[in-house]
Specification:
The protein is α+β, with helices and mostly antiparallel strands. It has one domain (about 10-85). The protein contains two helices and three strands, in the order βββαα. The radius of gyration is 16 Å and the shape is flat.
Length: about 90
């Protein structure tokens, strides 16, 4: 397992309402408000700063699209029917 103290990284917070990102080198403030939409709920993750291939690959594989004008890329009609089922 990699030592988190040796891997340079930033804390990224993404606003769940509008997708605005904020980055911090230290702990983010306890109460954070999005400048774009005034939202207060954020999803957090770490962004590698150095060329850490494993971390970059993991981020690419788990990234979520934030496009507001298009649908989800991987969702089929059967997937939606499964969600609506008992």
């Amino acid at each position: 397992m990699a030592d988190d103290q040796r891997t340079p990284r930033l804390m990224a917070l993404v606003c769940l309402t509008c997708g605005n990102e904020k980055h911090f080198e230290t702990a983010p403030p306890a109460k954070l408000i999005c400048e774009k939409c005034q939202g207060t709920v954020f999803r957090d993750y770490y962004v590698p700063v150095a060329g850490d291939d494993v971390a970059i690959s993991q981020l690419e594989q788990t990234a979520r699209g934030v496009s507001l004008d298009g649908g989800s890329f991987d969702v089929t009609e059967d997937d939606l029917n499964d969600l609506n089922g008992p």
